[in-house]
């Protein structure tokens, strides 16, 4: 892939950003990140979002995933996040709080990119096109292999909103199956994108 950055969102060249991300994670996770980038750029081209923003958000979405819990706990307490967040773990922190590390450490200040990083795990009721692209690309990138991924990939090419709904429903079912604690935002995403008890005008 040869996405050339304009300089609007980061002063780093793509190769430089890739290297900073790679330094922070295992080879396996870095390959996942590259898969998300490829998928996100393709979805951005298809649906008319900024391919450059999609590339940068994808490359940085899991930037904080391998940070120790203690570092997140310090930031949550120091920076005025809802203390309820402390009851969760890395799964919820690495995007929501990780976006602030992307901003401070990588100098990426674009609010659309930061929001896509914040929402990439839980989704939200209100999601921008870029938010949806990163949320879905994370789920369907070529390295993912789980029952249902083929359907999710097909939906992503037909109707991005349906892909968001599919992913949300299946993630929630998986979390409930494992008796995991559900973050309220994940429920909000379900209620908005999946629940049928809502007027059509809500989409
Ligand atoms: O970081 P990735 O593994 O690429 O993917 P991700 O950020 O979408 O998800 C990280 C994990 O978070 C994944 O195992 C699903 C889980 N997750 C999503 N919503 C919730 C959640 N975990 C809990 N406990 N609660 C949630 O609401
Ligand atoms: Fe993630
Ligand atoms: Fe990811």
Mean pLDDT: 96
State the CATH architecture of the domain at 14-145: Orthogonal Bundle
What is the distance, rounded to the nearest whole angstrom, between the alpha carbons of the first and last residues?
Answer: 34 Å
Q: CATH H-level name of the domain at 14-145... which superfamily? A: Hypothetical protein af1432
Oligomer: single chain
- Tell me, what is the CATH class of the domain at 14-145? Mainly Alpha
Largest sheet: none
Q: What structural class results from the helix and strand content? A: mainly alpha
3D architecture notes:
By secondary structure, the chain is mainly α. The chain has a domain at 14-145: Orthogonal Bundle (Hypothetical protein af1432), CATH 1.10.3210.10. The chain is built from 11 helices and no strands. The chain has helices at residues 14-22, 27-47, 51-60, 69-78, 90-96, 98-106, 111-119, 129-140, 149-158, 160-177, 184-193. The chain is globular and about 45 Å long. Residues 32, 62, 65, 91-92, 95, 120-122, 138, 171, 175, 180-183, 186 line the site of 2'-deoxyguanosine-5'-diphosphate (DGI). Its EC number is 3.6.1.41.
Question: What characteristics describe this protein?
Answer:
nucleotide-binding; HD/PDEase_dom; 203 residues; binds fe (iii) ion; mainly alpha; EC 3.6.1.41; globular; 62% helix; binds 2'-deoxyguanosine-5'-diphosphate; Hypothetical protein af1432; bis(5'-nucleosyl)-tetraphosphatase (symmetrical) activity; nucleotide binding; 11 helices
Please render the helix and strand layout as text.
Blueprint: H1 14-22, H2 27-47, H3 51-60, H4 69-78, H5 90-96, H6 98-106, H7 111-119, H8 129-140, H9 149-158, H10 160-177, H11 184-193
Helix pairs in contact: 2-3, 2-8, 3-7, 3-8, 6-7, 7-8, 8-10, 9-10, 10-11
Residues 32, 62, 65, 91-92, 95, 120-122, 138, 171, 175, 180-183, 186 line the site of 2'-deoxyguanosine-5'-diphosphate.
Domain HD: 29-143
EC number: 3.6.1.41
Protein name: bis(5'-nucleosyl)-tetraphosphatase (symmetrical)
């Amino acid at each position: 892939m040869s996405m050339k950055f304009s300089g609007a969102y980061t002063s780093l060249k793509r190769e430089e950003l890739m290297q900073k991300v790679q330094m922070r994670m295992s080879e396996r996770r870095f390959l996942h990140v590259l898969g998300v980038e490829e998928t996100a750029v393709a979805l951005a081209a298809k649906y008319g979002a900024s391919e450059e923003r999609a590339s940068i958000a994808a490359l940085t979405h899991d930037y904080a995933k391998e940070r120790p819990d203690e570092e997140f706990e310090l930031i949550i307490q120091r920076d005025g996040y809802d203390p309820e967040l402390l009851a969760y773990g890395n799964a919820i922190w690495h995007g929501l709080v990780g976006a602030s590390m992307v901003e401070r450490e990588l100098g990426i200040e674009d609010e659309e990119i930061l929001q896509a990083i914040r929402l990439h795990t839980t989704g939200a009721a209100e999601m921008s096109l870029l938010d949806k692209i990163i949320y879905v690309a994370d789920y369907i990138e070529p390295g993912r292999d789980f029952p249902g991924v083929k359907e999710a990939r097909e939906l992503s090419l037909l109707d991005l909103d349906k892909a968001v709904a599919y992913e949300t429903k299946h993630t929630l079912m998986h979390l409930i199956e494992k008796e995991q604690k559900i973050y309220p935002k994940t429920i909000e995403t379900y209620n908005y994108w999946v629940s049928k008890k809502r007027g059509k005008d809500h989409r």
